[in-house]
Design goal:
Elements: H1 2-20, H2 32-56, H3 61-72, H4 77-89, H5 92-108, H6 112-134, H7 160-179, H8 184-204, H9 210-244
Helix pairs in contact: 2-9, 4-8, 5-6, 5-7, 6-7, 6-9, 7-8, 7-9, 8-9
Protein name: Phosphatase PAP2 family protein
InterPro entries: PAP2/HPO (IPR000326), PAP2/HPO_sf (IPR036938)
Pfam families: PAP2
Length: about 240
């Protein structure tokens, strides 16, 4: 009975998603805020294309190496501790735990739009990163003994920790900013600093080149805007339905 109810709810969620993305009425839902998300997405993809072009043509090789060697000089036993923590905060165990916890919360509270937006963010972000990694076979720096030993068998480009952390923490920060508008910019700042710290920790750990991290930010920010756009369209449709009733 429980499995049947789960399948029923899952089917309802799929149908809900299809209804939200009715492209016939898409343009009627556009607002300045939605157009902004689209422009930010295009800007992010342009940045990713620019970085990728430099990496493929080996134009960033010297810059990557010089930055990594400069980072190595900052290594201290004391700094190793927070860098390990930040790196783990961008890891799959923590991010999956956060995503599952929020999904259960939204499910129980019947917040379908929040749940749908979270699934787009977490599921889509992970899929996009895996697909991009599959198209590259970049070797990790390994200029020194890595501070951590995780996912060394996957492509270094782009950083999955950075991509997924930016999408999930970014979407959570966006929702918190909506719920607590008075503290919005403080929440956004805290989210930004956390994501920047995660990116720095991956270079500090010796597991990613700087361009891997930058590409992770570009792809993550692009998909974050897709997730927010999806959420905003659903909210706008819901508001229009209520006004018509």
């Amino acid at each position: 009975m429980t499995i049947f109810r789960f399948r029923q709810k899952a089917a309802q969620l799929v149908q809900f998603g299809k209804k939200q993305f009715n492209f016939q009425s898409f343009f009627s839902l556009l607002s300045p805020g939605l157009v902004q998300q689209i422009l930010l997405f295009l800007l992010s993809m342009g940045a990713f294309g620019y970085i990728t072009n430099g990496v493929l043509n080996l134009e960033t090789r010297d810059l990557d190496l010089n930055i990594m060697l400069a980072i190595q000089k900052t290594h201290t036993p004391l700094l190793d501790i927070p860098m390990r923590i930040f790196s783990h905060l961008g890891g799959p165990i923590v991010l999956i735990g956060i995503s599952v916890g929020l999904a259960v919360k939204f499910w129980l509270r019947r917040q379908r739009i929040e749940l749908f937006g979270l699934l787009v963010a977490a599921g889509g972000g992970s899929l996009v990163n895996l697909l991009i990694k599959a198209g590259f076979n970049r070797v990790r720096p390994l200029l020194w003994v890595p501070l951590l030993h995780d996912h060394l068998n996957t492509s270094s480009y782009p950083s999955g920790h950075v991509t997924n952390a930016l999408v999930i923490y970014g979407f959570c920060g966006y929702l918190l900013g909506r719920y607590f508008p008075r503290w919005r910019w403080l929440i956004y700042l805290g989210t930004l600093l956390l994501v920047l710290a995660i990116g720095w920790s991956r270079m500090y750990a010796g597991l990613h080149w700087p361009t891997d991290v930058l590409a992770g930010y570009a792809t993550g920010f692009a998909w974050l805007n897709v997730s927010i756009l999806s959420f905003q369209i659903c909210k706008r449709r819901e508001k229009m339905r209520r006004e018509q009733v």
